[in-house]
Write a structure and sequence with these properties.
Ring cyclization and eight-electron oxidation of 3a-(2-amino-2-carboxyethyl)-4,5-dioxo-4,5,6,7,8,9-hexahydroquinoline-7,9-dicarboxylic-acid to PQQ. It is a single chain. By secondary structure, the chain is mostly helical. The protein has a single domain, classed as Heme oxygenase-like (Heme Oxygenase, Chain A), CATH 1.20.910.10. 38% of the residues are buried. It is globular. The longest helix is centred in the C-terminal third of the chain and has 29 residues. Helix 3 packs antiparallel against helix 4 and helix 3 packs antiparallel against helix 11. 69% of the residues lie in helices and 0% in strands.
Length: 252
């Protein structure tokens, strides 16, 4: 496992910086997490799948909010025109016709109550802390760092490509309609990731800014990893579900 803390020491070319960023994903993206491995192997109970969908909703719901914070700080109209597509993808034209609504459909398709999901009160405390940290990062750090934190989208088509076929094949209660959220995401994520990558490579023009970009991507990978750690702790063999958090009926 690489230590990325001094990866930009002495400065990197654009190609070298991109190679480091892709290495971060190869080593730290959450498709490597044991919870993901359990999911794609068909080993999760329905209750565990519900817990994943309910907690992940918190993350999905914050995405357009963090993107709005990025938009508010961007002075370039061309940047804003491109970045606002992300909000449109998740909110849709009326707030409930985009990716967030499709994730809610996934959650209710797994048997969850829509109000419980939207309210987020049954989510794990660690999930809420992680999501809040992501929003705060995109609000308080530099625009370059906020953009770089989105570069996990470089790797999301990989995890979707693993997750969707496995869920359809191994869980008889999961249908293509349930997983409608994932249909458009690989194309959207690839589009968004290429724009963010180009921006980061162009504007990370000093070793310090290059390191900030790398650190931002490591931070985002840590956020996604921590969310799965929390699910594993609460709904795995340990079964340490915090007070007030979702308690699935199906614990087998």
């Amino acid at each position: 496992m690489s230590d990325f803390h001094d990866a930009a020491k002495g400065g990197l070319s654009a190609a070298q910086l991109e190679a480091v960023l892709r290495q971060v994903g190869a080593e730290r993206y959450h498709n490597l997490h044991p919870f993901h491995h359990l999911m794609v192997s068909g080993a999760l109970s329905k209750g565990q799948m519900q817990a994943w969908a309910l907690n992940r909703y918190c993350y999905q719901a914050v995405i357009p909010r963090k993107d709005a914070m990025i938009l508010a700080r961007a002075e370039d109209p061309a940047f804003r025109a491109e970045w606002r597509k992300r909000i449109e993808d998740h909110d849709g034209e009326d707030g409930w016709s985009g990716g967030i609504a499709k994730w809610l459909k996934l959650a209710t398709g797994l048997g969850l109550d829509a109000n419980d999901v939207i309210g987020e009160r049954l989510a794990l405390p660690a999930t809420r802390f992680a999501v809040g940290a992501y929003l705060a990062f995109c609000t308080n750090r530099t625009l370059l760092e906020a953009v770089a934190s989105s570069l996990t989208e470089l790797f999301s088509p990989v995890i979707i490509g693993e997750r969707v076929p496995a869920m359809l094949a191994k869980y008889d209660y999961v249908t293509e309609d349930t997983l409608a959220y994932f249909k458009a995401r690989p194309e959207q994520a690839s589009r968004d990731a290429q724009f963010a990558l180009s921006y980061a490579l162009k504007h990370a023009d000093t070793p310090e800014r290059q390191q900030a970009v790398i650190d931002a991507l490591v931070f985002k990978c840590d956020i996604l990893w921590a969310m799965l750690d929390a699910l594993m702790q609460a709904y795995g063999e340990a079964g340490h579900i915090p007070p007030g958090a979702f308690r699935p009926e199906d614990r087998k």
